[in-house]
Amino acid sequence: MKAENRALLMSAAVALLMGIAGVVFAVLTNSGAILLDGLFNLTYFAVAVVTIRVARLATRPDSPEFPFGHAYFESLVNAGKGLLIFGISAVALVDSLVALFTGGRAVEAGLAILYAGFATTVCSFTAWWLRRQQKLAGSPLVDADVENWLLNSIISATVFLAFCMVPLAQWLGWNVIAAYIDPLLVACVVLIFLGVPIRLASRAIMELLNRTPPAGIADPVRLAIEQALVTQPVSRLYVRMVRPGRTLYVIIHVVLPADFPVERLATLDALRLRLDQAVRQVHPQVVVDALFTADERWAAPKAGDGRAVIETV
Fold it and tell me: What is the pTM of this model?
């Protein structure tokens, strides 16, 4: 928890610093690329303030107000991050296209190069530091921040190299070409990296919609459950999983023969404990519900009218 808070606070502080610097240098240089970077970081800072609060909520237990805990807030924040970044990118793309079709945009190359070099250094260091903290935190919120700063460092390095071309073009007398470098740079950066916020938002939205986690997470859990029940006379097994944020919710319906010997409830509780321990070996942050029945209609997926849908094998 301390590692996660430390990482999120660091990310927020650097985002604020780079956001203010970006807006100031954008005014001084008349650069749309720098303005995009500044607005991107200011937006990320605003979301980071919410993220820090959500990181504390995510570790709280369930309550009467939130009977399934607070894990979905993590997915909600990541969806918001992705959509905000996508929105800013779309506006920047439109602005750059307008500039390209109206004669370009002249920039103050010296200050622009200075800012881009500074931004590349700061963003690269932040991404490296956050990746180290993520090994301790194991947080999807920090994961999203690592992706953000990696993307930011790549964009800043690209901007730096492109701005270095402006004085070269001016020295060669290609002033018309020099005016198109900044808007062309913005358009290229947005088009190349637009998939990152889309991927971040879509993944989080799928979590909010309770989609089954990726096979890399779901398959080991299913295998662990099957191995834990290998000595039991299981007729059918239904496993349902969702993973909002860092918490994996697993519901296990075990269909047993009608003559399965249950002398005490402790017999079933022992099976529940075995399943819980098996799942936690492959995914430590998990909530496991195990239910046992002799009637498959209580375990099978339901149709729209509530009837069980039992697949034939």
Answer: 0.71
